[in-house]
Design goal:
The complex is a heterotrimer of chains A (384), B (533) and C (192). Chain B is mainly alpha-helical and 533 residues long. Chain B contains 16 helices and no strands. In chain B, helix 7 packs parallel to helix 10 and helix 12 packs antiparallel against helix 14. Chain C is flat and about 75 Å long. The chains are: A alpha+beta (384), B mainly alpha (533), C alpha+beta (192).
Chain lengths: 384, 533, 192
């Protein structure tokens, strides 16, 4: 009796307090208990479907557990209950096979409807090619030259608990994806290395990025705003550190942003050409090389150049960094097939690549004295 | 084969004459006795449960607050991977095999398992499999870090050198399970006591028979897929490499063709256990025995056509998504029938609430919660939101921890007096139950919330809005982990025969052949088969 | 026990049967590889296209409909080639034979063998994209510094459903120099 009451109370309190807690927190404006209804028609359909399924499940649970607890209360030996002996009833069995089946059919209709709406493949207003790689996203606008990598912007010091954590800890990137509101935007999703998954909860989009294959998803955002998501498929060491940030702007603001972006690309190209002609000093190359190294290379090869034995090779004392100069340039530009070493030709400028190679060839006792200039990298990248 | 059976005959022959139990380590190394082997399996699985649990403690300690505090992300991934592998292949499956070894011969009135020598092998290769797996953690570059699902190409091109050890150890685990399953099938098929027709078989025997068929159907497929991973990584094949004409998504299709039936391998024997315990303590026969058998069989059959519901986000044609959604929803019908039957068994019974019954009731409630979240996950459009979040983690821990593992604990309490001859320490047992029940829900229930709010699974660090719940989840985790030490103490006490002697029937309402032999069960039982009316 | 030998005989028979099932299922695991391809051909999972040339049959050209095809290119890690679709977007009538070209250049200081892997999205469209000639059917070697135009000839099956009016074809270019060398060496050895 005593035990039974305890058990009953535990479970009932669990069921009652949690939703109440949820409600009270939600009324405080916190949405960390439930799915978000998001900012697209599809995402709100998905939310409604989720709530419907949830309510059906709660209904089933209440009925089943209700009957069970009533039985546990009434049909106890300590209350003097005498056991009945029935153990079969074809009618009842048929009933509780058929009734759930009917409930399922009723659930299947709205589910199928939403699914078909999601998989609408008609032509979109614009397309963005989304490419995942360890551990960053690359966005390319198919109707222009605009393309960029988007990486985690949270400082290592915050992750390592040296600085206080900011509001958008782990959910902030250096260059967010920008899309217009009120237009059908299509995402073509693929990967450079392992499988990633591009997930933005507010759009109800989660689609795997499979290496060698393309997948597609689309959205039509109703409200301007900043929407955050994360990679949703285990993709190696820093799987937890490749967030997605999408900024939806009104079409007019989006066009302005795009024009700026295109202009910036032009300026960068001009700057690149200017630097190409220049010869930098060892000190300058080492300073800027170290900066690039810490930002792009240190995650795997470690700040001390020693790598992670068995997983990521060391640069300190390695044959590539000490001897094979063209090989070193090649691996930086194009990456290495079948390893986590990516191509950096699109992630870094030529002068940054030159600087980081110089840094790697001269830091941590790799005292080769080699100086690599942007022009040399340029020759290698574009052929003789 | 014939030589093996010949020697085996010889041994049996010897034992019949001398009736002595060998002493010391040799007894355990060379034993072909189903009870000894059952005990070995059960202790092994409990040790693995504590080992995998220790890894879960590391995971929860790292996730106690945001930021990286204790382990680096690479080691974190190794922990989630090895935790999963150990719990699935080291804790849950061997525990059920151990129960099968102990109980099936006693339940069907057979003197032993049909293939005792193979039984010995299938157990003794298992510790080596896990030694290999655990030792890989100490290699340069660490152990497997690609999740227990080892999706290619993360497990092929991009994995550390320990992958070969991982593949080797999975092969050994697979061989062990297959040998165990063959033994169970042959035993049930050929060694039932006269008069025990198919439809008179106890539910645990039925569910294990179906489980064993699932095992021999899908464990070889797992062996095939790990072999492909091995050749892709080391021998230049391109099963899963697009550059050579392969397809990484195909890995997932083959893996989940094994993986979904595997899920039922871990729950069908639990259904059997619960179907014994509830009638005993309700003092009323199981409601709808025949429909229980049919429901089990239909769950097993359906499990072969639902695998792709693990892969809705990989990009499938709408028609395929619909098919797998509807097929998955359909599984809830036979599963529902089982739950309804248990409730109907309780209805108008005369219930008492001993610890096995408490675990069984907790199983019914909490497994059903896991089942209902499973139904939600079946709905493709919302699965896009749930997939690979903590909602999924909550779901499968409800079915596997409060489902499979609670059923194993229920079974342990229920049959322990039969195995040891003494009643377990009831105070410790109650402490164990209540501590586990409360902590397991503090541990897994809030995972639903963080999952819905958008926390992906398999991440070592998380955004600040998930911090509060994660703290509670970790506290629940530590409490659940500690609660199992109570169980350890209780088991040691029971094995040292400290406690009140148990009667043959042990429980007032217990029925079945195993309750007709004395407690503790003698080393040899049913050497002359009983006659079933 | 009197029937021990008969029962162990029965056991052996059953064990043999079960072992056969085990090996059968192991083989089935590998059979899933070709089966998966067949499955993909039927359902268009993953947008795989035909891997060998299809002979163009002069079918009725459906002039009433236009299908837009978008071509995108991509090189993978370790592949230094420049790779670009000359035609980025094309509108075709179903049944009509078309040709598009892709530009490749090997800027590296070494000879490289490339292999392009196609992928179509939405996947169902892949069933109706029939290629009569494609650079992706074979390895493509380029010497250091060399460039080339690679053709691809195709037609869209007139059976294509009305609602598919738009699809994307992606070519991913891989460096398969090492694998190609191995094959060449094996062939040289075999011919000796």
């Amino acid at each position: 009796m005593n035990l039974l009451t305890k058990m009953f109370v535990t479970i009932v309190t669990m069921f009652i307090t949690l939703p109440t807690l949820a409600q009270s927190l939600e009324s405080e404006g916190r949405s960390d208990l439930n799915l978000r209804s998001g900012v697209t028609d599809i995402s709100s359909q998905v939310y409604d479907l989720h709530m419907l399924m949830f309510m059906v499940c709660v209904g089933i649970a209440v009925v089943v557990f209700g009957v069970m607890f009533i039985s546990m209360f009434l049909h106890r030996k300590s209350r003097g209950a005498k056991p009945a002996n029935f153990h079969e009833s074809v009618k009842v069995e048929i009933a509780w096979t058929v009734v759930p089946f009917i409930i399922l059919i009723l659930m299947a209709f709205p589910a199928a409807k939403t699914l078909i709406a999601m998989e609408d493949t008609s032509e979109a207003d614009m397309t963005v090619l989304v490419t995942g790689s360890q551990w960053k996203w690359h966005y390319k606008y198919m109707d222009s030259d605009v393309e960029f990598y988007s990486t985690l912007a949270t400082q290592q010091e915050q992750i390592r608990n040296k600085f206080a954590k900011g509001e958008n800890y782990l959910l902030e990137v250096d260059r967010p994806l920008v899309i217009p509101t009120g237009q059908k935007v299509r995402f073509l999703i693929t990967s450079d290395d392992v499988i990633h998954s591009w997930w933005v909860p507010d759009f109800a989009i989660k689609k795997d990025a499979n290496p060698g294959f393309i997948n597609e998803a689309w959205t039509n955002v109703n409200e301007p705003g900043v929407y955050r998501g994360q990679c949703a498929e285990l993709c190696g060491k820093d799987h937890g550190f490749m967030p997605i940030v999408v900024i939806a702007k009104t079409p007019q603001e989006y066009e302005e942003w795009k024009a700026e972006k295109i202009a910036a690309i032009e300026t960068a190209k001009a700057e690149e050409n200017r630097l190409l002609a220049m010869n930098m000093s060892m000190d300058d190359l080492m300073t800027s090389g170290q900066k690039v190294y810490l930002a792009k290379c240190a995650a795997c090869h470690m700040p001390n150049g020693e790598g992670l034995p068995g997983v990521f090779p060391a640069i300190k004392g390695s044959a590539v960094a000490l001897k094979d100069r063209t090989g070193h340039i090649d691996i930086l530009l194009n990456g290495r097939t079948g390893t986590a070493m990516q191509a950096f030709s699109k992630q870094l400028t030529l002068s940054e690549i030159a600087a980081v190679i110089t840094y790697q060839r001269n830091a941590w006792g790799n005292n080769t004295g080699d100086i690599v200039q942007a022009s040399e990298v340029h020759t290698y990248a574009n052929g003789k | 084969m014939s030589t093996a059976t010949d020697t085996l005959h010889h041994d049996e022959h010897d034992e019949h004459h001398h009736h002595h139990i060998p002493k010391g380590i040799k007894r355990w190394l060379l034993t072909t006795n189903h009870k000894d082997i059952g005990t070995l399996y059960l202790w092994f699985s409990f040790i693995m449960f504590l080992t995998g649990g220790a890894m879960a403690m590391i995971i929860r300690a790292e996730l106690f607050q945001p930021g990286l505090q204790i382990v680096d992300p690479n080691f974190f991934n190794q922990m989630t991977t090895v935790h999963g592998l150990i719990m699935v292949f080291g804790a849950v499956m061997p525990a059920f095999t151990g129960l099968a070894n102990w109980l099936i011969p006693m339940m069907i009135g057979a003197p032993d398992m049909a293939l005792p020598r193979m039984n010995n092998w299938s157990f003794w290769i298992l510790p080596f499999a896990f030694l290999i797996l655990l030792s890989s953690l100490f290699l340069e570059g660490g152990g497997p870090a690609f999740g227990w699902t080892f999706y290619a190409p993360l497990s092929t091109t991009y994995s550390s050198d320990s992958t070969a050890l991982f593949v080797f150890s999975v092969h050994i685990m697979g061989i062990s399970s297959i040998m165990g399953a063959i033994n169970v099938i042959v035993t049930i098929w050929n060694m039932r006591a006269p008069g025990m027709t198919w439809m008179k078989m106890p539910m645990f025997v039925w569910t294990w028979l179906i489980t064993a068929f699932l095992l021999i159907a899908v464990m070889p497929v797992l062996a095939g897929v790990v072999t492909m991973v091995l050749t892709d990584k080391y021998f230049g094949t391109s099963f899963f490499n697009a550059a050579g004409g392969g397809d990484p998504v195909m890995f997932q299709h083959i893996f989940w063709f094994f993986g979904h039936p595997e899920v039922y391998i871990m729950i069908l024997p639990a259904f059997g256990i619960i179907s014994h315990i509830i009638p005993t303590f309700a003092r009323k026969p199981l409601f709808g025995y025949a429909s229980m058998v049919y429901a089990t069989a239909s769950i097993a059959l359906l499990s072969f056509i639902v695998w792709a519901h693990h892969m809705f986000t990989t990009g499938m044609p709408v028609a395929a998504e619909m098919f797998f959604m509807f097929a998955t929803m359909l599984i809830s019908v036979p599963t529902g029938v089982k739950v309804f039957n248990w409730v109907a068994t309780m209805w108008r019974g005369s219930m008492t609430f001993e610890v096995p019954m408490l675990f069984a009731i907790a199983f019914v409630v909490l497994f059903t919660i896991g089942g209902l979240s499973g139904l939600m996950l079946a709905i493709t459009p919302v699965d896009f939101q749930y997939h690979d979040t903590y909602f999924v983690v909550a779901h499968f821990h409800y079915v596997l921890v409060t489902g499979a593992i609670f059923s194993i604990m229920a079974a342990a309490y229920y049959w322990l007096p039969k195995w040891t001859g003494v009643m377990y320490d009831n105070t410790l047992a109650k402490w164990h139950f209540w501590a586990s029940l409360v902590s397991v829900n503090v541990l897994f229930f809030p995972m639903h919330f963080v999952g819905l709010a958008g926390m992906p699974r398999r991440i070592p660090d998380y955004a600040l809005q998930f911090a509060d719940f994660n703290k509670w989840i970790s506290i629940g985790g530590f409490a659940f982990g500690l609660s199992q030490l109570i169980f350890l103490a209780l088991l040691i006490k029971a094995c040292r025969k400290k406690g009140e002697p148990a009667s043959a029937q042990v429980w007032e309402g217990a029925e079945g052949l195993e309750w007709e032999i004395p407690s503790p069960a003698p080393y040899h039982t049913f050497e002359t088969p009983p006659i079933i009316k | 026990m009197m029937n021990q030998s008969t029962s162990s005989n029965q056991n052996n028979k059953l064990v043999v049967k079960l072992v056969v099932i085990v090996f059968g299922m192991f083989t089935f695991g590998f059979a899933l590889v070709p089966l998966y391809d067949v499955f993909c051909d039927i359902t268009g999972i993953n947008g795989k296209t035909n891997e060998t040339a299809i002979v163009y049959e002069a079918t009725d050209i459906d002039r009433s409909r236009l299908v837009t095809i978008e071509f995108i290119t991509k090189t993978t890690t370790g592949m230094p080639w420049a790779f670009e679709a000359k035609t980025k977007r094309i509108q075709v009538h179903p049944g009509e034979l078309n040709q598009v070209e892709f530009y490749v250049k090997n800027p590296a200081f070494r000879d490289i063998v490339g292999q392009a892997i196609p992928s179509v999205s939405p996947g169902t469209a892949a069933l109706y994209l029939n290629k009569t000639e494609c650079f992706c059917f074979n390895n493509q070697p380029l010497l250091a510094g060399e460039d080339a135009l690679m053709p691809m000839q195709f037609y869209v099956d007139p059976q294509i459903p009305e609602d598919v009016t738009y699809f994307t074809v992606q070519y991913t270019l891989y460096d398969v120099t090492a694998a190609a060398q191995k094959v060449a060496e094996a062939q040289a050895q075999a011919s000796e």
